[in-house]
Amino acid sequence: MKRLKLAFGLALILLLSPSATTAQSPEEKGLAIAREADKRDTGFGDFTANMQMILMNKHGQKSERKIRIRTLEVKEDGDKSLTIFDTPRDIKGTAFLSFTHKVGDDDQWLYLPALKRVKRISSRNKSGSFMGSEFSYEDIASQEVEKYIYKWVRDEEYESRECFVVEYYPVDKKNSGYTKHVTWLDKKEYRMWKVEYFDRKNSLLKTLTSTNYRRYLDKYWRPDQMYMVNHQSGKSTRLIMSNYKFRTGLKDSDFNQNSLRRVR
Amino acid sequence: MRVTVVGTTLFAMLCLFSTPVKGLANELSGYVAAEGRYFFYDTLFDEQEKNSGSFAFQPEYYHEWEDSSAFLFVPFGRLDSADSQRSHFDIRELNYLWPTEDWELRLGVGKVFWGVTEFVHLIDIVNQTDLVENIDGEDKLGQPMAHLSVPRDWGVWDVFLLPYFRERTFPGRKGRLRHALVVDTDHPTYESDDEEHHLDFAVRYSHTVGDWDFGIYHFVGTGREPTLLPGVDMKGRPVLIPYYEQINQTGLDLQLVAGQWLWKLESLYRTGQRNDFFASIGGIEYTFVGIAETSMDLGVIGEYAYDERRDNATTVYENDAMFGLRLAVNDAESSELLAGLIQDLDSPARALSVEASRRIGSNWKLFLQAWGFFDSPSDDLLYNVRDDDFLQIELAYYF
Q1: How far apart are CA B295 and CA B330, in angstroms?
Q2: Contact A125 B257 (CB under 8 A)
Q3: Which chain A residues have any C-beta within 8 angstroms of a chain B C-beta?
Q4: Cross-strand bridge partners of residue A180
Q5: Selected residues 124-153 of chain B with any CB under 8 Å from a CB in chain A
Q6: DSSP 3-state assignment of A210?
Q7: CA triplet B190, B193, B196: central angle to 5 degrees?
Q8: What CATH code is assigned to B2-398?
Q9: B260 closest CB neighbour out of A117, A124, A258
């Protein structure tokens, strides 16, 4: 009887103080948010899209690239993706194949059409510029939950949407160009609206803003535009996405060295 | 010429049957380029012209059908002011690709590259080198082929039937960067009675396992690298006669990604020429990202090439060390610089090269290339080009 009373009392305490069961550390809350965002984007299968990349230097001079992307979702691991350049014409047909892995280094190959040469490249060069843009290789890689340690900072309204503000700390500190990035995700759909990137000296390096999100297959949100500003160099890169197509029937065999050589 | 006729017919047929599709229908691209070569010193041999200018074009027609099968036609031509051998036309590619779930077949004139190292493309054998284009050996002639590729989870098998042989191009009498004696490309000689119609065969297995990429192949047929024999031409002048042997060659390429380091190795064993021999090139590449707080990347390359034939080798890379720097500025103009030093370890002979390129606007591109040859002893292959240090400027328009 006494024991039962004690158990009852314990249960009552647990019931009455929600903090004991649901209270999370900022780290746990951050991870939970990242997992939820990832979960909501799971199951898309594959997609293709066209991308217009506009580079702008600090004097306002523009330079444009046309790119096609193909992405295949891989269960239990990171995505496979193929990026094909259509313009400028001198690099037409150049293609970049990437296998993202949840743990460990990604696999990356570059195809150079003039020589018909496939080159394996080191994926440790994460902070390197992707084709002269303000996006680095790590910015364009698929965002796997395991690649960061998270910390929820606060909730905040951003452009009249209730958002979580979460800090992402790269697991691979040695090769990342960042100490952290700070992300604004809306509470309703877990879409990433803004990301601030902090360099190795922990000063603000770049800001990415995404706009005009559209929903595909009634579930998967993708932005029409992404705009990356480098505060230190004054340069910027705008990505204009179009022609998103989901579940196009892409297979593993569309993401090997043969398909890289065949690509147009 | 036969190839051209077949090509034109095929081309016309494809145009007739082509319907608008989701793929890239009737796509035309390519480039035209003007090039000037300035040589710093006077010519060594009579008849050579000091400097040269030339025009080149390489359009590319591509058509893809709904089922992903595709047709590709890439002719190439150059008109050179000095060297009639450098003025030449070639079909770089003219082929039909038939891809299926399990294999793909390419029929026609095609181009294939095998290899991993930067300075020497030792094991690359399917396509003949178009040596008059560039002494770096990266330009290749189109090769008629039936190429079956079978990709599997456990690796890729490539099988080639090569029904027609392409002779290596060599500079003519008026051209520079040549041997003391001109190579008589009008009268090549062959070990096989079938001459250039000998059916060559190659099979390659390649795979990626974790951080390793490797390929191993065997080639049976007409050797791409001729033995040059002294002889006389039709006019009784002393020349070098190319002699193409029947060879067997096994080749290996291997690359390991170890963090920021790339380790590379190419090896071959060849029989059928005068002496059977082993040759290899190995090296490393390391890239520094974002040097000096800029967005520039600097790659450092070190390689070593060995050829068992040593002084009898038909290549300059028989016991040589190479060192290179590759700078990628990562600007909107894709500016790049590649500097290389090739040092013979048996003599003071060395060569220096610098290549740079930069886009102008969205369709133009400027290329600079310079070579210098130093301290070649008289028995070295580079001795004949000891005064051929040059600067080349090329301006290309891409469409």
Answers
A1: 6
A2: no
A3: 55, 57, 61, 63-64, 87-92, 105, 107, 115-117, 119-129, 131-132, 175, 177, 233, 253, 256-258, 262, 264
A4: A198
A5: 138, 149, 151
A6: strand
A7: 55
A8: 2.40.160.10
A9: A124
B-chain residues near A55 (CB < 8 A): 332
Residue ranges of domains in chain A, CATH in brackets: 25-262 (2.50.20.10)
Whole-angstrom CA distances from A175 to A71, A126, A127, A227, B274 are 24, 6, 7, 24, 51
Taking only the tens of pLDDT, chain B with its 399 residues reads 344 444 444 444 444 444 444 456 789 999 999 999 999 999 999 899 999 999 999 999 999 999 889 999 999 999 999 999 999 999 999 999 999 989 999 999 999 999 999 999 999 999 999 999 999 989 999 999 999 999 998 999 999 999 999 999 999 999 999 999 999 999 999 999 999 999 999 999 999 999 999 999 999 999 999 999 999 998 999 999 999 999 999 999 999 999 889 999 999 999 999 889 999 999 999 999 888 888 899 999 999 999 999 877 778 888 999 999 999 999 999 999 999 999 999 999 999 999 999 999 999 999 999 999 999 998 888 899 999 999 999 999 999
Half-sphere exposure of B125 (CA within 13 A, CB side): 31
The ipTM assigned to this model is: 0.89
DSSP string over B366-386: EEEEEEEEE---TTSGGGGGT
Q: What one-character-per-residue DSSP string does A56-119 give?
A: E-TT--EEEEEEEEEEE--TTS--EEEEEEEESGGGTT-EEEEE--SSS--EEEEEETTTTEEE
Q: How far apart are CA B13 and CA B23, in angstroms?
A: 18
B 15-74 residues with CB < 8 A to A: 23-24, 27, 29, 31, 62, 64, 70
Are B332 and A55 an interchain contact pair (Cβ–Cβ within 8 Å)?
A: yes
C-alpha distance from A162 to closest chain B C-alpha (Å): 36
Longest dimension (CA), chain A: 85
Beta carbons of B244 and B255 less than 8 angstroms apart: no
Residue B262 in contact with partner chain A when CB distance is under 8 A: yes
